[in-house]
Amino acid sequence: MDRFISADEYKRRVMIIDDEEINRLMLGNILETEYEVVFAKDGQEAWDLLHGEEKDISLLLLDLLMPVMNGFELISKLNEDDELKSIPVIVMTSEKEAEVKSIKLGASDFITKPYDMPEVILARCERIIKLSEETTLIHSTEKDAVTGLFTRDYFFEYIRQIEAHHNSSVDALVFNIDHFHLVNEMYGRKTGDSVLVRVANTLEEVLKEKEIISCRTEADTFYVLCEHIDDYTPFIAKIQELLGNASGSSKIRLRAGIYQEAAKDMEVELRFDRAKIACDRIRGDYSRTVAYYNNELYQKSIYHERLIRDVDDAIANEDFKVFFQPKYDITSDTPKLRSAEALIRWQHPELGMISPGDFIPLFESNGLIQKVDNYVWKTAASQIRKWKEKYNYSVAVSVNVSRIDIFDPTLQDKLRTILEENGLDASELMLEITESAYADSANTLTEVAESLRASGFKIEMDDFGSGYSSLNMITTLPIDVLKLDMKFVRNMEKDEKSLKLVELIIDIAKFLDVPVVAEGVETKSQLDTLKDLGCQVIQGYYFSKPVPADEFEQFIEKELK
Fold first, then answer.
1. pLDDT tens-digit map of 84-118
2. Which helix (H) or strand (E) holds 368?
3. Quick check: helix, strand or coil at residue 116?
């Protein structure tokens, strides 16, 4: 195998352009020790060579006074050519006025005739080539290849340079495209790139009257530093309108997080981190398109950082408590204990009881939910085993499988290991997957669910009816149980539409030949209504709130009697 040649070892190509043969030979003799040399006798020949067979020229050494096309004319033509204008030019002349004119036209340097100092000529060529290559490298990393906006690092550096000399009031804006990954998945990366370009152009068009600097960071996130505006609502509305008109629909939806008038002594990155916190706060909230960072968000972010920091200790010290809520079969006159759902609580040693609503969405967003899920799986399986040993009675328990778990290639192995360690059958540890997970990973979810069912696991679709994809999903996703979203149960006695939807969902389940579990049942009338509609299993405060394992034993003992 040939040895790799480094950039320093690579021999650059230079072109000498002079109508005097003696000058070409003299200069060529000096340069050939360090460079591969190409010759042209006038500007026209050089132009033809550059557009023909001579490529990868690193430097032009150009005489100014030549027939056919002189040096000034060639520099002017090079400046108008997008492919060639980046090639540096060293002018060869003995006239001071010509030197000044050529530099103004864009020449990088000049060499004085006659060529009596070879070491100076070589040093100037080396310096100009190195400077040109470094500039080219900088330009290639300065702009995002898709949108033409600044890249993240250059964006921050430009802001630092600007703010060193200006003291105007500015805002940090973060824009994100909702569900952008679906555009790439459904329509391809080419369409996705066109959406990114459209968003970039629209942002700059709407905000052009303000002094702005913008960049694209990550796949679908844009940062904008903007001259301060009191109310961005009309600007965001205009951006959304233009995006809708350009795409022929309103499917491209931006949400914005804004941190206004940040102090200049705050790090640039931190300002945009705070704007992003505001932007992320309204993820999935279609009633809002703009969120402003404030002290409440600051305190919340500090709180979240504390939770993230403490999660490993919580697992090690068993500060996470797994509660169990019973599910009852109501198909007979006397409800019978059917199974249970494992629900996590956090008893923090300093912060007290932390609501799952505080930490579960946070951990889902940063991937830590996988650690929590594994803890719940192990705890639930261990408890099933303990109950079997104590009562000779098996209570199947449902555990949550989060979106990130679906993409874990070792998921099935982990679950199998947990079952083997506790001597359980796969049917005793039921797996709940939320309907919303389908929107992000339909194909993967279907494949994983099929594989798990083939291994004996029961798949429950949680929160059915809470998303927009339910009817499409149930035709493709292999499931064993539908869990009816509790908001329908709460509203079905107040709202005729909710009641009709409950009836429709139960009919769908009958068609699929799978049972329905209704969550959030609190009253006898709700139970009776659901039973009349054909619902088989009930879960909710009517029977019990989620309780610790030792309290749950009363339901097992009652069942055994």
1. 888 898 888 777 677 777 778 878 788 777 776 88
2. none
3. coil
